[in-house]
Amino acid sequence: MLTTRHGVRPLGPADLDEFLDLVGQDPVVNVFAEYRARTTNLEPRWLGGEVWGRFADGSLVAACHVGANLVPIQATPDDARAFAQRAAGRSRTVSTIVGPHEAVDPFWRAVGHAWGRPRELRWMQPHLEIGSAPLVEPDPGVRRTTRHDMDLLYPACVAMYTEEVGVSPEAGGGSDMYRARVAQLVGRGWSFAKFEGGRLVFKAEVACASATAAQVQGVWVDPQRRGEGLATRGMAAVVDLVRRDVAPTVSLYVNEWNAPARKAYERVGFRETRRFSTVMF
């Protein structure tokens, strides 16, 4: 535990209220951090890692989630460099660094020499939000999935993940863990899809949510059906369902180079609010 009034230390349950005040400064961008805090109470054994806080004059000014994902929270470039100084003295345990570009960029510049070459760098990913009804007619065929859909849903999730990340989630014996994650989202009512002729043609999931926002991930269209507008009307349906039953604002981030996806989200009514960056190992 730090004894100085300025510095970085791990947070715990006693810091939860102050941490929630911090993420509440931008509750949509920080939805992952709030979700993790509320579901773990900042207990390291439940986090599977740590959350670091940076303090100035005794007050929490920035934080950093350090688990499978390393996520800076309300971090200025100076805060990010302070977190990087702590991280550089440890072996890398994270598989991804992700968050607002203005924090990820200085963090990576400071820690990259110690953590080695990443598999991929994705800079300037648009972070998008919608807090109103979609601008296009939702696809009435999109619905919540159930456990009876797993035979069609799970292969689509694997295909999406492999296409997006470049590595199968089943690699290295990870199929049981990934299947459990997909089933967990289905059980929460956070998995949505459209089926036609015994095939899944569109899907998306909520990755995390709070009372304010829900972050969508895993948007995928059957490659044989791309270019038909399934993503646009499908995402309009997801926005409607999520805003009705999960949270009033829907967010996601998308690769800058993915012009078809960006156009689909724009048609639905998503608007860019920040730029994210992702470093993948």
What would your notes on this structure say?
A hairpin with a 2-residue loop joins strand 8 and strand 9 (199-209). The two termini are 30 Å apart. A 12-stranded mixed β-sheet has the order 1-2-3-4-5-12-6-11-10-9-8-7, with helices on both faces. It has 2 domains: 7-116, Aminopeptidase (3-Layer(aba) Sandwich); 143-273, Gcn5-related N-acetyltransferase (GNAT) (Aminopeptidase). The chain is of the alpha+beta class and 281 residues long. Helix 1 (16-23) runs antiparallel to helix 2, helix 4 (77-88) runs parallel beside helix 5 (101-115) and helix 8 (230-245) crosses helix 9 (259-268). It has helices spanning 16-23, 31-40, 44-47, 77-88, 101-115, 150-165, 175-188, 230-245, 259-268; strands at residues 7-10, 50-56, 59-66, 69-73, 96-100, 120-130, 143-144, 191-196, 199-209, 213-221, 249-253, 271-280. It is globular, with a radius of gyration of 19 Å. It has 9 helices and 12 strands.
